Amino acid sequence: MSQVVGVLGGSFDPVHDAHLALARRALEQVPCDEVWFLPADRAVHKPTGPLADAERRRVMLELALADEPGMKICPLELAAARPMRSLESLSELKATWPGNRWYFLLGEDSFRAIDSWYRPDALFAIAPPVVLPRPGSTGERTQSYAGQPVTWLEGEELDLDSTSLRTRLAAGQKPDGLSPAVLDYILAHGLYREQCS
Questions:
Q1: Which residues pair with 72 in a beta bridge?
Q2: Rounded Cα–Cα distance for residues 62 and 41 (Å)
Q3: Does residue 196 surpass a pLDDT of 50?
């Protein structure tokens, strides 16, 4: 059975409330039937790699998505155990589920840098972009990119990013913006303390 699927890729190091808000709004506003979280083994544009290993990032995603209907983890890139470009991943998903309609979910900061990505025109031809605005954004809301429509999600703006969360966790803080189960897991396993301090 064909579905409308939003794909949200990233390191999820750690997964946080802005990721979940993006997925929830895509389910409601596109609307998508499902949102597939596509965790990277290692991001192509981040050669140093994520700080938490792939298994721990997968567990954090499972904890965050446990009570989120319509959201699931797609293990494609983790199973490959190598960096994959978004175009490669979406091409493989399209080949595996040719009946689905695909959307590529991303934050405004990533969308503004899309020209530096590998063949974004081909990526968006498979999965048109759905963008979550960043707080304080005054940029023009581009309505199309390379001939594909750009969907801008509406709702409260969330000023969250994984880098600042890791910094606060490294300082021994318990930052807002993480699901309680994810925060408990991070604290129980001492994640981000050694790597960031």
A1: 36
A2: 16
A3: no
